[in-house]
């Protein structure tokens, strides 16, 4: 038995439970309760509101990704310069919060923002009283949720950097700052790119955070899909077409970002993600 | 300057870790909060915004009455009279079983992928990235549709536990693969070849020579799978009717009785972290000891 | 090549076998599958019912009426009992999804207040398919320390004095419905202009609004973080129990009175057990315990008589007749619901 056969159960699994389910999105986009129609598909695409909602979500996702990168890069850089065993331990600590469920942590944040912080500063106003305050609060918690996914790929790329290159740069007279911008940063691009992919698209669809932290005041893309699937399908018999169509747009985003990512990840090793 | 940078490093890491652990500390604290009780003696308002005093009651009230340890109760999620307790058990069951299965399938897959031709490998790895980049919302919806479709077409009734298991395994496997692959690349093929030369069957050679070598990768893959399963809300929400903890919590905030018992989350979290710390700190301490001894040897 | 195919087939078999062995195998007649809102029943009652009858109750929770509709329509639906709200019941009757109740098996149905039956007649004539389970009104919960003027109109929700301290309910029908009432229209209007007028008023409210809440809004009110909130009467009772500064009022323009009724879906497998459970829930003693646990108002007259003055004299829990007179029930809107949903999207996007 050849070693590559070991991958076959996984490949079958992948086809059955990853590839085939994806096809259902296309099936339901054009099939409403057993009848084939493209009408809903096109009316959803034409609906300007959907595109506006997508745009607002992309703005949020962009903000989240940028802040995650700014906060995460130094973390990964510091970790990569530490002793391997200690760095490994600390990098686990970045994932441990996820053992407490996401919904509860989001709840806790809402309580901290609403009650603990005002209490601490002795004020009655809270951040979420105003629209701009709500935006900040939602961004804060989105960053909180996605930061580990930015740190991991960055840390993995940075810790694999050939240290002799840095020494060479120093020997050639570059100072620390110059070495960082000329050598470290360009070499860590694959990590940056996988970090961005791990954060950007998933954060477009976050729907629990806007609902719980943003006081339900937002209609973001994730909320739109969720309501399209859970309520529209309730009013109209088995009509998942709006939700499916919106998901297809998202799948396109994923394909685009994967293509971009693969351009940077020349070896196609994919190992830079984790 | 150097010293400043060094202390800045630790301060920055500390602040970031505090940021990540802040809500957790908050929840642990409030899991000991005495919540108000209404005139019937029920706690009805789990107010996370006001501290009323210390109590263990929140932990005591999770499970309710024990219904008896039968196979039926176990599989249909009714070991306890309280829904919360059953949701907790279901979460643990799904997390453990799915991460074990995902680790096995994922490790095998990584071993296979590692020896594949470059082009096949590229295709397989690219598709494998999909569940990681895919928003959980889309993953959840696709599973919902898949199971509904299988049911309409084949009349196959799949139990909720199995639905959850399939969904969780599917989104965990890639994390296992991408944890194991780098280790495999580091490990030399010579070990495997040597084992074959010494008369091992290919399977035995893998178990005896390759697996021990890539064990750290397998362990971290398992931990990632466990993490993803425990953290999931959206996929479970769309996939099955039976409620895991997160779905239970979410549904309890919609109507009727108010609030979420924070003890529900900490009761899993605290033992898990204790275990992790025990294992890791011992390892770190051992390494330290080893280093000190090495230094002594060198000094001599 | 052959080997490859064999391997693939083997793996597929493994997975299918795995899937098949997980299929449900319980005897249908000893099980009752109940679909209900989260924490919307006293769990002790379920235990007692199981002990009395030997029927195993699987209690599944839902988060919205629409989600419940989807679950009931799905081909693997095996629910025997469900607790949807008024307008959804009307839609289910229209779509022929319900089984008529057999009242000979529900003697305790006589405990239901005839006054309640009069109201539910409007969406389920003669209670042919459904029996009231819990009910309540929608009104304004306000903080008497923060609001110094009398609260008697929905108009106060547009008062700039309370900017950033106003909560609305995170639900299409409720929020647009009360705005329609404020404007003097029918809550069940099928006039797009009226809905759009309500929509524009709600968009104009955006800078004043703290948000659309459910659970978080109630906690916020209890902790004195907001002045005004649109809530269900049952939730108001709980909030006032936590914070004495809070008060509840059903504004003079009128409001919504809602019902969650118990129904049996047409494809129910265990109809007898479902009737037995409905009868059990309507037993005077059981209904009393249930309403005490949930905190929402019971339509069960026998239970109401057993409740102490803490409940019966509380106008929030037990609204007087003049409040009921100015409230109306939500009705099924049919296709017109699209207009409401589109308006809701616009309102949410206005923040």
Structure description:
The complex is a heterotrimer of chains A (274), B (300) and C (351). Chain A contains twelve helices and two strands, in the order αββααααααααααα. Chain A is mainly alpha-helical and 274 residues long. Chain A has a two-stranded antiparallel ribbon with strand order 1-2. In chain A, strand 1 and strand 2 form a beta hairpin. Chain A is globular and about 70 Å long. In chain B, helix 5 crosses helix 7. The longest helix of chain B has 37 residues. The mean pLDDT of chain B is 83. Chain C is of the alpha/beta class. Chain C folds into two domains: 169 residues, D-Maltodextrin-Binding Protein, domain 2 (3-Layer(aba) Sandwich); 144 residues, Periplasmic binding protein-like II (D-Maltodextrin-Binding Protein, domain 2), CATH 3.40.190. In chain C, strands 4, 5, 6, 7, 8, 9 and 10 form a seven-stranded mixed beta sheet that branches. The longest helix of chain C is centred in the N-terminal third of the chain and has 20 residues. Chains in contact: A-B, A-C, B-C. At the A-B interface, helix 1, helix 3, helix 4, helix 5 and helix 6 of A face helix 1, helix 4, helix 5, helix 6 and helix 7 of B.
Produce a short descriptive summary.
The complex is a heterotrimer of chains A (274), B (300) and C (351). With 274 residues, chain A is mostly helical. In chain A, 74% of the residues lie in helices and 1% in strands.
């Amino acid at each position: 038995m050849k070693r590559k056969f070991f991958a076959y159960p996984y490949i079958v699994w992948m086809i059955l439970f990853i590839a085939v389910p994806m096809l259902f999105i296309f099936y339901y986009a054009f099939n409403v309760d057993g009848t084939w129609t493209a009408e809903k598909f096109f009316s959803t695409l034409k609906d300007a509101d959907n595109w506006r909602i997508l745009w607002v979500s992309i703005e949020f996702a962009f903000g989240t990704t940028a802040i995650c990168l700014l906060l995460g890069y130094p973390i990964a850089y510091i970790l990569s310069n530490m002793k391997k065993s200690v760095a490994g331990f600390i990098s686990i600590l970045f994932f441990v919060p996820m053992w407490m469920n996401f919904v509860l942590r989001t709840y806790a944040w809402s309580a901290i923002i609403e009650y603990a912080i005002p209490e601490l500063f002795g004020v009655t106003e809270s951040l979420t009283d105003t629209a701009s305050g709500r935006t900040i609060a939602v961004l804060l918690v989105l960053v909180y949720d996605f930061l580990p996914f930015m740190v991991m790929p960055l840390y993995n790329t940075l810790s694999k950097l050939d240290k002799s290159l840095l020494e060479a740069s120093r020997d050639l007279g570059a100072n620390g700052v110059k070495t960082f911008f000329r050598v470290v940063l360009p070499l860590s691009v694959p990590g940056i790119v996988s970090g961005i992919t791990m954060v950007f698209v998933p954060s477009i669809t976050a729907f629990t955070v806007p609902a719980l932290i943003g006081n339900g005041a937002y209609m973001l893309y994730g909320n739109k899909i969720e309501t399209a699937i859970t309520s529209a399908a309730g009013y109209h018999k088995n009509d998942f077409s709006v939700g499916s169509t919106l998901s297809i747009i998202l799948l396109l985003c994923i394909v685009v970002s994967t293509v971009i990512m693969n351009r940077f990840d020349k070896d196609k090793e994919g190992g830079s993600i984790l | 300057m150097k010293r400043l940078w060094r202390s800045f490093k630790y301060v920055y890491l500390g602040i970031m870790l505090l940021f990540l652990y802040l809500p957790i500390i908050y929840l642990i604290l409030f899991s000991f909060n005495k919540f108000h009780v209404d005139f019937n003696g029920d706690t009805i308002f789990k107010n996370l915004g006001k501290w009323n005093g210390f109590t263990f009651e929140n932990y005591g009230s999770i499970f309710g009455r024990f219904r008896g340890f039968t196979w039926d109760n176990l599989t249909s999620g009714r070991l306890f009279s309280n829904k919360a307790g059953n949701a907790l058990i279901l979460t643990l069951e799904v997390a453990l079983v799915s991460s074990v299965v995902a680790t096995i399938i994922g490790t095998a897959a990584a071993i296979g992928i590692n020896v594949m031709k470059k082009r096949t490998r590229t295709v397989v790895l690219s598709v494998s990235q999909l569940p990681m980049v895919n928003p959980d919302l889309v993953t959840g919806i696709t599973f919902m549709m898949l199971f509904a479709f299988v049911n309409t077409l084949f009349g196959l009734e799949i139990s909720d536990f199995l639905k959850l298991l399939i969904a969780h395994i599917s989104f965990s496997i890639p994390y296992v693969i991408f944890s194991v692959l780098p280790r495999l690349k580091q490990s030399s093929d010579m070990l495997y070849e040597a084992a074959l030369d010494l008369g091992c069957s290919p399977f035995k050679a893998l178990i005896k020579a390759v697996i021990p070598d890539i064990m750290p990768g397998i362990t971290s893959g398992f931990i990632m799978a466990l993490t993803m399963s425990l953290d999931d809300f959206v996929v479970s929400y769309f996939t099955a009717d039976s409620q895991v903890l997160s779905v239970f919590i979410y549904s309890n905030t919609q109507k009727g009785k108010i609030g979420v018992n924070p003890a529900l989350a900490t009761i899993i979290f605290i033992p898990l972290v204790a275990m992790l710390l025990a294992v890791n700190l011992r390892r770190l301490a051992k390494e330290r000891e080893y280093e000190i001894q090495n230094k002594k040897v060198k000094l001599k | 090549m052959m080997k490859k195919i064999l391997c693939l087939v083997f793996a597929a078999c493994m997975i299918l076998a795995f899937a098949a062995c997980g299929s449900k195998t319980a005897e249908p007649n000893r099980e009752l599958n109940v679909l209900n809102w989260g924490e919307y029943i006293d769990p002790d009652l379920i235990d007692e019912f199981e002990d009395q009858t030997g029927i195993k109750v699987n209690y599944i929770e839902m988060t919205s009426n629409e989600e419940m509709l989807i679950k009931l329509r799905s081909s693997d639906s095996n629910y025997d009992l469900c607790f949807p709200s008024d307008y959804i019941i009307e839609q289910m009757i229209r779509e022929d999804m319900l089984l008529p109740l057999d009242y000979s098996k529900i003697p305790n149905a006589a405990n239901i207040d005839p006054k309640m039956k009069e109201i539910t007649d409007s969406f389920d004539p003669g209670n042919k398919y459904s029996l009231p389970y819990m009910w309540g009104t929608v009104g304004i919960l306000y903080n008497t320390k923060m609001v110094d003027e009398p609260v008697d109109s929905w108009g106060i929700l547009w008062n700039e004095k309370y900017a950033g301290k106003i909560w609305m309910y995170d639900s299409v029908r409720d929020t647009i419905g009360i705005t329609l009432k404020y404007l003097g229209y029918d809550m069940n209007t099928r006039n797009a202009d009226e809905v759009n007028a309500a929509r524009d008023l709600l968009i104009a409210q955006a800078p004043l609004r703290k948000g659309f809440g459910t659970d978080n809004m109630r906690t916020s009110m209890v902790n004195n973080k907001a002045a005004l909130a649109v809530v269900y009467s049952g939730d108001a009772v709980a909030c006032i129990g936590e914070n004495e500064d809070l008060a509840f009022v059903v504004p003079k323009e009128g409001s919504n009175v809602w019902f969650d009724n118990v129904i049996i879906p047409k494809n129910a497998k265990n109809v007898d057990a479902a009737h037995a459970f409905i009868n059990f829930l309507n037993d005077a003693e059981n209904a009393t315990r249930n309403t005490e646990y949930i905190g929402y108002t019971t339509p069960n007259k026998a239970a109401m008589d057993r409740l102490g003055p803490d409940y019966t004299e509380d106008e929030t829990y037990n609204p007087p007749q003049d409040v009921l007179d100015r409230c109306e029930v939500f009705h099924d809107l049919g296709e017109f619901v699209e207009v409401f949903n589109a308006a809701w999207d616009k309102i949410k996007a206005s923040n």
